[in-house]
Amino acid sequence: MAGSRIALVTRRPAPGRDRDLPVLARAVDAAGAEARVVGWDDPDVDWSGFDLAVIRSTWDYSWRPGEYVAWAERCARLTRLANPVDVVRWNTDKRYLGELARAGVPVVPTRYTAPGESVRFLDGDEDGDGEFVVKPTSGAGARYAARYRADERDAALAHIARMHAEGFTAMVQPYMRSIDTTGERALVHIGGQFLHAAQKGAVLASGTAYDADKVAHPDLRPWRPTDAELSVAERALAAVPGSPDLLYARVDLVDGDDGEPRVMELELVEPNLFLGVHPGSATHVAEQIVKAAR
């Protein structure tokens, strides 16, 4: 629909780390619509003036998830929001992994501890085996995430106490050793169809403090997914409550000890789409965005 006005929603000021954003804006303009890059919390934005608001690099949402979800609800009342507000509400809390597991999707084993609850480590951690990861259920870019050895439980408890003091629910997962060899694989879907995939190295180095800055996507490179990876990604997307119409999705996978892929995260709100890893993909994404504005 030529002439559609489309908001590409980011944070304020626009993050320099989102190198895909200006590329995508130009591609949307070239596809016959008018793209405008706006901050989600900018009080001067008139959301009713857009035919579609596409959430992109709102990577600061995890510091104030309640405010962010409230914004999404307001925005969805004034224009079409992609992805839909119900998806935003569900996917901004990583307790969704528990729902995926109950639906039969293979996921990384996870335990949750809300403020006021006693900490429950995973069975292997209680026995003193292996490494584990602690992070908040509301997080982006490995914020407040850290990797611990089995003999570092006191440090992990202090980490969790800090998150609880700030109102965050903590999650504990085993450190998936395969990340050090095969990395994570991110499978990007646009308009309900697989688009491309990328492989990235380990984010959490042993001994790095939870409040230290981290490189979110190290050693990023193209990846050709296996049939097993594509199948797990499809199962994860099929398990999203309400079977919503998803404009974009990214399924992050790692290998379990059995060598089979498991879901690390299901990114349905503000995933990096890794357009720079696959030159030319911005054109297809832009076409799907313009189509969604109709």
Description:
- This protein is α+β, with helices and mostly antiparallel strands.
- It has 9 helices and 13 strands.
- The strands form 3 sheets. The chain has a 5-stranded antiparallel sheet.
- Helix 1 crosses helix 9.
- The longest helix has 14 residues.
- The model has no long low-confidence stretch (mean pLDDT 92).
Fraction of helical residues: 25-40%
Derived from helix and strand composition plus strand pairing, the structural class reads alpha+beta
Largest sheet properties = 5 strands, antiparallel
Strand element count: 13
What general outline do the C-alpha atoms trace?
A: globular
| Cα radius of gyration in angstroms | 19 Å
Strand and helix layout:
Layout: E1 5-10, H1 20-30, E2 34-39, E3 52-55, H2 65-78, E4 80-82, H3 85-91, H4 96-102, E5 111-113, H5 123-126, E6 132-136, E7 146-148, H6 153-165, E8 170-174, H7 179-182, E9 184-190, E10 193-200, E11 221-223, H8 227-238, E12 248-255, E13 261-267, H9 281-292
Parallel strand pairs: 1-2, 1-3, 3-4
Antiparallel strand pairs: 5-8, 6-7, 6-8, 9-10, 9-12, 10-11, 12-13
Helix pairs in contact: 1-9
Q: Keyphrases for this structure?
A:
294 residues, alpha+beta, 5-stranded antiparallel beta sheet, 4-stranded parallel beta sheet, 9 helices, 13 strands, globular
Question: How do you describe this structure in short?
Answer:
The chain is of the alpha+beta class. The chain has nine helices and 13 strands.
